[in-house]
Structures are given as structure tokens and as C-alpha cells.
Design brief:
With 119 residues, the chain is mainly alpha-helical. The chain has four helices and no strands.
Length: 119
Amino acid sequence: MKRFEDLEVYQKAFEFSIKIYKITSSKIFDSNIKNQIQRAVLSIPLNIAEGFELQSNKQFVKFLYISKGSSGEVRSLLRICERLEYLESKNVQELIIESENISKQLSKFINYLKRSEIY
């Protein structure tokens, strides 16, 4: 793999971040929640990219864990948005599933890198 853009998990995280960013750009969102969820969702692909560019599996794993944590933060914020009735439950559940899938993919990638010879 020569570019982080070629990683499937990066591509999914990137598209997910664009989706969440567009959804939360509406004026109905409280500015604090809007800013927090947008920062958290952007953190997912950005940390994948940053970790990849460090060219060290150990450092890359560290940044993948940060991405995974940000994925959890987004899920929590989505549930808050649901309770505040900024988003419908059905939409929130679909977004949570998408975030969980990215998180699972990150876990598999982390485990792969940790088992590799150059970790």
C-alpha cells in the first residue's frame, strides 16, 4: 500500500465524515453539538491519514486507535442528537451501524498491523 487513500477503511471513514458533516450542517443543531460531532467525525479519516504517513506500524496503530475512539464519540453524539430530536431514530440507527462497521474494520486492521513482522 503506497497511499492512505487506497485503504478501504480510509475511504469508508472519509465518506462517512462527509455524510455526517452534511447532515449536521443544518441550522437545527446546537452549535456545541454540531462542532463536536463534526470534529469527531473528521478525526476518523484524518488520523488514519496522519498515522499512515508516519511510516511506522507502531505509530500507525496509535493513530488508528484514536480513529476508533473518535468513531465511538460520534456514536455517542448521534444518540444525543436522537434524544434531542435533531435526528430521527431510524437515521441514527443507520449511521451508528455504519460507524460500528468502520470501528470493526479499524480493529481488524490494528490486529493485522500488530501481528506483522515490522510492528
